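haha ok so turns out i had the wrong file open the whole time. this is the CORRECT one, sorry everyone. sequence first:
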Amino acid sequence: MGERLKEFLGKSRELQNDRQAIELQHKKGKLTARERLKYLLDAGSFVELDAFAELQSKELEKKKTGDGVVTGYGTINKRAVYAYAQDFSFMGGSMGEMHNKKICNVMELALKTGCPCIGLLDSGGARIQEGISALDAGGRIFQLNTMMSGIVPQISAIMGPCAGIAVYSPALTDFILMVKKTGYMFITGPEVIKTVTGEAIDFEGLGGAASHNEKSGVAHFTADDEKECLDMIKVLLGYLPQNNLENPPYHNADSERETKKLETIVPEDPKKAYDIKDLIAEVFDRKSFFEMQAGYATNVVVGFARLNGNAVGIVANQPKVLAGCLDINSSDKIARFVRFCDCFNIPLINIVDVTGYLPGTEQEHNGIIRHGAKVLYAYSEAVVPKISLVLRKAYGGAYIALVSKNMGFDKVIAWPTAEIAVMGAEQAVSIISKDEISRNAKAKADLIKEYSERYLNPYVAAKLGKVDMVVEPKQTRNALIKCLEMLLSKREKRPAKKHGNMPL
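then structure:
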């Protein structure tokens, strides 16, 4: 056993980065692959898999035990997860055949065991030296990402430059976190772009954290450094179940209470703006709101929170940006979030104050009809408990998408200030009383007042069974709790089919 043990210990030492490689990562403000996993997972819980795998190419002399990626499983807050971390110090974390096979192995195990799968990415893309073998093995990763979708949560953290095939896998996962100044995503790098198009751009401008969290909407969270990024993953997992057959974890309840601040947070005047996040902070369990895509499509706010200890997904109009109107980007943002919540048994609560979809030729020509239909599709498809709270305006197509009981919303709650109608009073009167106004322009003000008093209240909808409850603002939290807790046992099945055809 002596020689065999020496051989084993020698190979085990090869798994560790040399001092120079470690220092180089640290100089860049980055942790090593093993340091990342150590920080993310519970102390002593990590079990490494395929540690002694090596690239198989006979043409390449440069080899390293492990082939540039550390894979295995462990626990986060005592919950089992599978994880992998790419090692940029070996061939730029490039994805070769064995490298990809190691990743596929943990993905397959995550799928079989019903555990979340977390990727810590730091890769220059496909290993050019291995040619088609590297590309083909990457295809299996993408297939597994797709197979796992809706079965186990998939989380990707972009902790270094990720290019080419290295960005498609995270794009197929549920959530992408990016680290500022070190994490980049792009299909082709700045040099290639300059060669092909003549356009000069740096890494940050092309695919940095700000670019993908504010402009493209590809990423969902931004972190100042790697440890903050890993801490965010831990927080995120706290809202998610292990898999699609389980419910999200319950946390200590924050009890019922009156929300008196709502009487001043939301102005009674429907034309005055306010910050919907102030309302969310007041209604839901204290400090429980975890916003996603905070810098993208800011006319809508989405994220997770807890209501009396139960995890919920929140979709809320933001009146201080575009008056909370739905546009192309916010429609995509809502639809994807709703579908995730439905996959993983997370109830949905809409907080509605919206005049409709954003008008304009730019929106129309870029496909607002198609993108807006995604919202309709997502909510119609969702079978989790769905509650809608109407604060002020709920007009037109946006009313249908976010409130309508015929769309499958289980409970609709309205404030006394709610205006549920096809459109606002001024626009409605301009259409239905056009002839009368043309004869007597002074009559317009009276007609607007009459229309508002007759139609812009929650009681018209309540008479028709379209609103279940009208509550005063201070009772909002208690009303939502009671509705949610009565819906937690909801079971709803849809007709069996291969899959639908979402308007992508």
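The chain is about 40% helix and 20% strand.
again sry for the mixup
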